[in-house]
Amino acid sequence: MRNDYAALYLGHLPVPPRALKSTLKSLVLFAAYNLFFGAVVPAIDNSAHIGGLVCGLILGAVMARHLTSPPEERSSWRNLVFLVGGVVLLGIFFAVRKSVLHA
Fold first, then answer.
1. Phi, psi of 37 (to 5 degrees)
2. What domain range is 91 assigned to?
3. Distances from the Cα of 93 to the Cα of 2, 11, 67, 84, angstroms
4. Same domain, 84 and 39
5. Please, which residues have CB within 8 angstroms of residue 89's CB and are 6 or more apart in sequence?
6. Kindly report the CA angle at 73 between 72 and 77, in degrees rounded to 5?
């Protein structure tokens, strides 16, 4: 969901402005609801929601330029972005884990 916002907003898709505005409004309301729900329910950690929102926005922004590319190019770009994103997230995980274990 979160990468949809950045992709729709930055992707310059051939979508009527009215439909685009409606979809973006729906996505923003959904994200706001999740953040609100995470703040109200003690068992939910909002840091995961915020992390997912930020990562999704970044991935969507990176992939937006290639949404209208030919299928082969779009697929290759998507795979590269998710591979690099996964490696970066794994690096962050191990860095945090190391700092917690040595604290």
1. -60, -40
2. 69-103
3. 21, 30, 29, 14
4. no
5. 55
6. 120
